[in-house]
Design brief:
There is one protein chain. This protein has nine helices and no strands. The protein is mostly helical and 197 residues long. It is elongated.
């Protein structure tokens, strides 16, 4: 009887293998052979799921982005009492092993995006979604009276993303200088400037 393979699950496993290799070696040094080894499969299996390395890397980036977005959405739904924005921003920072790995992936993709049009397109798509999410969250916080009404939510969404990118990048490069506690302090100080209180 032929083996039944859950293709979605297998692709997810491959994405995790891509993350491991990128986190360890960066995108430039990542090879299909290393990804196959980390995924415990042959390069032929990878070729069955992905037409080339670029498609495989983009898939892994999309899965990482989707996981981060799902976590932030979950935090938004779970939070109450004025902590929603804070918790969502914390969720986007490299404050634990999973998120540090995601940041290593994102930083690697940023570097590659300079010369790869498909990576640029994916990064732009991700930023459009992130800006809309941040803007909507800010508007909700304004309606709830937790953030000042004079703040332009669209412009402030850009500030939040710049804050997250800046803190996340620095914490990825200098984790001892910006441990999780320090990352949260920076976010808290910024959020105090938006507060109605």
């Amino acid at each position: 009887m032929p083996k039944i393979v859950d293709h979605d699950s297998r692709r997810e496993e491959v994405a995790q293998a891509v993350w491991q290799v990128i986190a360890k070696r960066g995108i430039g040094a990542t090879t299909i052979r290393e990804i196959a080894r980390a995924a415990r499969c042959s390069t032929g299996v990878l070729a069955h799921y992905f037409k080339d390395k670029n498609e495989l890397l983009l898939y892994a980036l999309r899965i990482a982005s989707m996981r981060a977005a799902n976590r932030m959405q979950k935090r938004m739904l779970e939070s109450a009492g004025g902590e929603t924005l804070r918790r969502v921003i914390y969720e986007a920072l490299p404050i634990d092993k999973e998120r540090r790995t995601e940041w290593q992936i994102w930083v690697s993709f940023w570097g590659e995006a300079v010369s790869n049009a498909s990576f640029v397109k994916e990064q732009k798509r991700r930023y459009i979604e992130w800006r809309a999410f941040a803007r909507d969250l800010l508007l909700e916080e304004q309606r709830a009276g937790r953030i000042r009404k004079d703040i332009d939510a669209k412009k402030e969404a850009d500030s939040i993303i710049a804050l997250v990118d800046g803190v996340g990048l620095q914490a990825t490069i200098e984790p001892r200088r910006l441990p999780p506690k320090r990352q949260r302090e920076i976010v808290d100080r910024y959020l105090s400037t938006l507060s109605c209180r």
